[in-house]
Write a structure and sequence with these properties.
heterodimer; A: alpha/beta; B: alpha/beta; Glutaconate Coenzyme A-transferase; two-stranded antiparallel ribbon; globular
């Protein structure tokens, strides 16, 4: 059963130094407030997992929380580069960042395998790409060929993801800790079900979850912590509650380009303040 | 380089060009789509082209974004693949595993629309790293996203990319998404089910793979651009089609529709 707690207690309970942590939300419902809390609690040596690292991981990488990253697309959507991510890869600032790199289809299927209790997933894909030959975090090939036992076709296998912790943001939970999210639901269900522990921040806690078209419901017994954090996905958005702050994504390009400016942002907006970009 | 430097418009009219090189490129890309097609769309130039097609000659074009939105009908250009307007206007919204496994992988989608940081003579695409070393790259690019499987599994692929010597290279530094590999037969040997790139649309013209050699060949050129202009921005010895055609500039209707889509996006 999920415990309904403060964000600080949820992160303190779920996220430890050295953990593998997946914060999911495909452009929509990105758990920024939880990411900032991880930075405030000065977690270190994390392995972060996420299809699209987005600004949330740019911030965690720049803040020095991250040693390893498993991902499939590391850009600022519609804007350009993630400068903290690039600075870590190109110049090892604030420290080296080891990468394990996949395609979206590969990552999505790795979560599915993890959620399904399977050791790997199979897909058509990767064949002929440079990704095929890249090592995983353990130095072994992360993407391997497999032959179909029925047809003899050559396919691709990718290992299951089973993070220590999954963190997502959702629109609502009820007082028992059942969680409801809708709109673009990405890979959040798979991320939560693949993880050992989970944290969900929500826009609101309500008496009863009213049905919503296309909603994903995560029963309370697969969630460990629920924290009410209105606006917790800003500058991404929560359909029906908040709008995407496109200006923030633009402003981030400037803030994140420069190490000093980024460090000042961290001091002002994460350690001292409320998380607005200006 | 003066004519090429300004893009599609003749140099003499560069400061009063009736349309930009990007608008010419977007119109050409939109024309490559026919009504009723299904189209897997990336954000940026591909999205602008697909939405322009839907606003003009292809109102029944089915737009599919990797965020899981199928049949999205945005009245403006979405600002990211997860823009709320895509979910609100879609026929169906599915999870990310579902969009890749049920919809893309079986070859259900007609056209994949991709961008590129680098592209080579066999239309292989790099969006991963610039530089000889993956481990110590000169430039770390965003990476693969959905592109490798779009390139593998859509029935055909269209690439939209601005043409420079840095983007049009003899060999890509890293193959993120496969075009024709090292030439004829490569896709078949690798089990890639789609036919691969059909057109590469740039800000100078259109290149198409030669049916025999699979090498990108200049088949269309914009008004005011010359073959030497295109060669100057190509990092290999460019093949030119015997039937090279000059492509029609964007029509007034195309320009109006495209500018309206852009205006709707900036006045949110």
């Amino acid at each position: 059963m999920a415990e309904i707690v403060s964000l600080a207690d949820a992160i303190a309970g779920a996220v430890h130094d050295g953990d593998q942590v997946a914060m999911e939300g495909f452009t929509h419902l990105i758990p920024f407030a939880a990411g900032h809390e991880v930075i405030r609690q000065r977690r270190r040596d994390l392995t972060l997992v996420r299809m699209t690292p987005d600004l949330i991981y740019d911030q965690l990488i720049g803040a020095g929380c991250v040693s390893r990253l498993i991902f499939s697309w590391g850009g600022n959507p519609g804007v350009g580069s993630l400068h903290r991510f690039r600075d870590a890869v190109e110049n090892s600032w604030p420290g080296p960042l080891q990468l394990e790199e996949h395609s979206h289809a590969g990552m999505a299927n790795r979560y599915v395998a993890g959620a399904s209790g399977m050791p790997f997933a199979i897909l058509r894909g990767y064949s002929g790409t440079g990704l095929e030959g890249l090592p995983g975090l353990d130095g072994q090939p992360a993407i391997r060929p497999i032959t179909c036992p029925f047809t003899g076709e050559r396919l691709t296998a990718v290992a299951a993801l089973n993070p220590d912790v999954a963190i997502i943001h959702a629109q609502r939970a009820d007082r028992a800790g059942n969680v409801q999210l809708w709109g673009i639901t990405g890979v959040q269900k798979e991320a939560v079900l693949s993880a050992q522990r989970s944290v969900v921040t929500v826009e609101e806690i309500v008496d009863e979850l009213a049905p919503q078209p296309g909603a994903v419901v995560l029963p309370t017994w697969v969630v460990d912590y629920v924290a009410e954090v209105p606006g917790g996905s800003h500058p991404s958005y929560a359909l029906g509650f908040t709008a995407r702050d496109n200006d923030y994504y633009q402003a981030w390009d400037e803030i994140s380009r420069d190490r000093d400016r980024f460090s000042q942002w961290l001091a002002d907006q994460v350690f001292a303040g409320a998380g607005s970009p200006a | 380089m003066t004519a090429a430097g300004g893009g599609a418009a003749p140099a003499s009219a560069a400061d009063r060009a009736p349309f930009t090189a990007d608008e010419m490129m977007t119109a050409c890309a939109a024309r490559a789509l026919t009504d009723g097609m299904t189209c897997f769309v990336g954000i940026g130039l591909p999205s602008a082209a697909a939405n322009l097609a839907r606003a003009t000659h292809a109102p029944n074009l089915v737009l599919i974004y990797e965020s899981g939105t199928i049949g999205a009908k945005p009245g403006r250009l979405p600002l990211s693949i997860g823009d709320g307007i895509l979910a609100e206007t879609a026929d169906a919204v599915v999870s990310v595993p579902e969009i890749f496994n049920y919809w893309l992988q079986p070859g259900r989608i007609g056209i994949g629309f991709l961008g590129a940081a680098q592209i080579d003579r066999f239309a292989n695409i790099n969006t991963t790293v610039i530089g000889a070393s993956y481990a110590c790259p000169k430039v770390r690019l965003p990476g693969a996203g959905g592109a490798p499987e779009i390139a593998a599994s859509c029935r055909e692929v269209i690439v939209v990319v601005r043409q420079t010597r840095r983007s049009f290279v003899d060999r890509v530094d890293f193959v993120t998404s496969v075009g024709f590999g090292d030439g004829p037969g490569y896709r078949e040997r690798r089990g890639l089910t789609g036919a691969g790139p059909r057109k590469v649309i740039t800000d100078l013209g259109i290149l198409e793979p030669d049916p025999d050699s699979c090498e990108l060949t200049l088949t269309g050129i914009y008004p005011g651009i010359t073959v030497p202009d295109v060669q100057a921005r190509t990092g290999w010895e460019l093949a030119v089609s015997d039937s090279l055609e000059e492509l029609a500039p964007p029509t007034a209707a195309e320009l109006a529709a495209l500018r309206q889509l852009q205006a709707n996006s900036t006045t949110l």
